[in-house]
Specification:
70 residues, mainly beta, 5-stranded mixed β-sheet, 5 strands
Length: 70
């Protein structure tokens, strides 16, 4: 079994993309995390990272855009 899982990203600057993440990030009680996106050209001046998380009752490998974060 692989230690990496592909998650699908919905909304925000990475909409429609996929991200390889450690299996633990998907199996966590609240799947998701913040990371530096491929393209942060639309980011506010004080934020360079994006936050994506799974919906509470949704699939753990589909993460939705939440916000830009510092």
């Amino acid at each position: 079994m692989s230690d990496m899982v592909q998650v699908r990203l919905v909304g925000g600057p990475m909409d429609g993309g996929t991200l390889p993440v450690d299996r633990e990030a998907v199996e966590d009680a609240e799947p998701g995390f913040d990371f530096v996106p491929d393209d942060s050209s639309g980011a506010p001046d004080d934020c360079s990272r994006v936050l994506y998380t799974a919906e509470p009752d949704g699939p753990a490998d589909v993460w939705h855009w939440r916000s830009w974060v510092p």
